[in-house]
Structures are given as C-alpha cells and as structure tokens.
C-alpha cells in the first residue's frame, strides 16, 4: 500500500514537472524590453476570455478578442504560452485607444517583430498592424498605415513576407496622381514564410525604405520588373534618382498616412484604422484572410531598428528550442 502511494506521488510529481517545463519560456523577453523605441510588447500569457496586454512600460494596450475566446497554447518564447488563432478570430484595439501605436506622419518610422508558427499561407495573410483596406479593388476609402502581411502575389510577393506602408490610406498613386487598383507599396523577401514551424518575422521602415526579415536575416532582393509584376513606371522609374524602387529593401519615402477627421470625414467615413492582430479589414471583411497559427510574441517600435537589433530580437526568441519541442 505504501509502495503504491509513493509510486503515485512520484508519478504525479513527474507529471507536474513536465507540465511546468512545457510552460517555461524558451527565450528571453528582457532583450525585447531593453530595445530602444519599444511601444508595445505582447507575450500572450493570458487565458482565453481575457484582454491581451502589453508588458512594455509605455502602456498595456489591451487587445480584445473578436468572435469569442481565443485558445492559449502551452508553448511560447517569452511567457511559456502563445495565442492560438483558428482563422475565424482575431484581436483588436479601437482606433481611439491606439495611442503611441498610431504611428503616422511624413517623418514617421516603425518596426515590427513577431514570433509565430503559421498554418496555411493560402488563408493566413496578416500578422498585425493598423491596416483597413476598405471594400476592395479601386476603393479609396481605406485608412491603411503600416502592417506586417504575408503572401501578396499581386505585385510579386507570393508566400513571402510583405510588410506594407501606405502614405495615402487608400490606393497607391503615381507621381502624376493616377491610381493603382490597390495599395502597391510593400517590400517582398526572397524566402517564403515558413509554415508549420516557429520562426521570427520582422520589418523596419526608416522613412525611406521598407526592409523585411525572416529569422533575423535580411536578404537583398533586386527588382525583376516582369517576373515581379512591377513593370509599371511607378516601380521602375519613380524610385530614388528616377531609378527603380527595388524589392527588399523597397523604396517608399512618402511617410505614413495620418487620419484627419476634418479632412477625411467624407472620403473615409469609417474613421481611422484599428490596430488588429491576426486579421485586417480587406474586401469588406476581417475574416476572409484571417490567420491560423500560434503567436508567441509581438512587438512594435516607433523607430527603424538596425540589422544587428533585429538579429538580437530573433536570437532572444530561441526558436530552435520551440521547434525541438514540437518534434517530441
């Protein structure tokens, strides 16, 4: 009887230990917290039904669940947990509560960093941002600002990381004012975004160039106008010194859209864009391209980080440990 009780206690203890180890953070959140320019940093430690709050000192920026409680996974880089999106839900912070996340203006800079495990890039297109596209093709009512997006093949970004910056909020316009049917301003990586494995995704915008990073690495990508579907003069002749805009980095150089209620009340009646995670408003819906997968960390900065800083953030996530745990 005593032996049976001791054995039961031992097994219970081992089970508890294994559970605790499964919830231990794989990475080091202090690296993110110490990076200058940090506005918000979510580690997704909260249980379903709770607001997801930033742990950065600037403010908590509580993200509310849309379409019911969102599952929490017992694995993650910074809190030991992650939020588990199913493609039918997302997180949202109303425009009037975005505070310092509302990065905008002619001289604005922004960087984003995320630790994610993405499923199905055919649907999963959005990491996060302030990015409302309006109702579809040729619709200029959008209030786009900045966003980390994936798999946008229209202008040469199939299955790749494609961070966007918009100066107009609506569709992109050439130097003469003529309009594209969509927003066309985004960088595109050489590599495809990894599926069904942990990775880090990041981008920077320094007021001129958008640069995209996968797993802490930036790879230069030259423009191939025909292959990349960017043979319009906007891409080939309206870059620096009348040259092309490139692909990664991509030359934008026109600032980030700033919503003005007096100026835009009629042209953009829905108001400024909310900050959303896992989905964006596109073609009249949030859920058409909502993301499936786990998010273990998300950070926003109000400056362009350096290559070295992006690499440090990547290393802080320790994705090798996360992926090794997946294989057990």
TrEMBL record:
<keyword id="KW-0732">Signal</keyword>
<dbReference type="InterPro" id="IPR013320">
    <property type="entry name" value="ConA-like_dom_sf"/>
</dbReference>
<protein>
    <recommendedName>
        <fullName>LamG-like jellyroll fold domain-containing protein</fullName>
    </recommendedName>
</protein>
<feature type="signal peptide">
    <location>
        <begin position="1"/>
        <end position="20"/>
    </location>
</feature>
């Amino acid at each position: 009887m005593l032996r049976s009780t001791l054995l039961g206690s031992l097994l219970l203890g081992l089970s508890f230990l294994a559970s605790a180890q499964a919830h231990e953070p794989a990475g080091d959140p202090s690296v993110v917290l110490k990076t200058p320019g940090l506005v918000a940093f979510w580690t997704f430690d909260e249980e379903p039904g709770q607001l997801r709050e930033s742990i950065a000192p600037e403010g908590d920026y509580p993200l509310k669940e849309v379409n019911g409680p969102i599952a929490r996974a017992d694995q993650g880089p910074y809190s030991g947990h992650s939020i588990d999106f199913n493609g039918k839900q997302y997180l949202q912070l109303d425009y009037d509560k975005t505070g310092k996340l509302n990065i905008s203006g002619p001289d604005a800079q922004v960087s984003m960093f995320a630790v994610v495990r993405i499923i199905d890039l055919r649907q999963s297109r959005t990491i996060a941002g302030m990015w409302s596209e309006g109702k579809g093709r040729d619709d200029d009512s959008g209030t786009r600002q900045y966003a980390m997006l994936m798999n946008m093949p229209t202008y040469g970004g199939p299955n790749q990381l494609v961070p966007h910056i918009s100066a107009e909020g609506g569709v992109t316009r050439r130097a003469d004012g003529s309009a594209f049917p969509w927003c066309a301003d985004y960088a595109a990586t050489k590599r495809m975004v990894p599926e069904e494995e942990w990775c880090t995704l990041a981008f920077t915008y320094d007021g001129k160039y958008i640069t995209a990073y996968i797993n802490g690495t930036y790879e230069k990508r030259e423009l191939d106008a025909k292959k990349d579907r960017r043979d319009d003069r906007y891409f080939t002749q309206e870059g620096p010194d009348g040259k092309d805009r490139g692909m990664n980095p991509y030359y934008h150089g026109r600032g980030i859209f700033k919503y003005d209620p007096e100026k835009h009340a009629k042209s953009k009646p829905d108001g400024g864009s909310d900050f959303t995670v896992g989905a964006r408003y596109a073609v009249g819906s949030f859920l058409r391209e909502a993301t499936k997968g786990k998010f273990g960390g998300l950070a926003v900065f109000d400056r362009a980080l350096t290559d070295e800083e992006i690499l440090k953030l990547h290393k802080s996530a320790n994705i090798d440990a996360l992926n090794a745990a997946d294989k057990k």
